Amino acid sequence: MKITLIPPGGAQPFVLADDAVSRIAAMVSPATGAGGSLAEGFVPVQERIVQVTPLARSPYVFIAPRFNLKNSLTLTVSRTFASVEMCVNFLATHATSAPASGLLEVQSVTASGTILRFLPNTVLQSIKCQSHTGVSCRFQYTLIASNPWQNTP
Fold this sequence. Notes:
Structural class: mainly beta
Radius of gyration: 19 Å
Strand order of the largest sheet: 2-1-7-8-9-6-3
Number of helices: 1
Helix content: under 10%
Largest sheet: 7 strands, antiparallel
Shape: elongated
Distance between the termini: 18 Å
Number of domains: 1
Number of strands: 9
């Protein structure tokens, strides 16, 4: 699975995860992100705003859906680098180099074909380094959007 965030205006796509990259052998540009395997993968959540109203003389409150859907996605990516220096450089520059928002593209290639899904106007809410040991590190990303998933960009 490959997950890419494409900033507004068609800027350089930023790679959040790419299972095809098992080990990062060359120095990566902070502006393009880096591949890495999904350790705790694709966990989408959809929330709706609800209005809770107490009613007089009623044993239960009234709950009304107000829609206002919000999609969120959490993923954890594990990366292994060729050297400790490359890993430390990635740790130091990664969070500040990632775009704040854009079109999220999720691509999965299987034996039966390629699946593409897009989530427009996605905001990269948080980037958290969960662990760092030698040449390996794990990052957790939380992305949110107020749009539905789409089959085309």
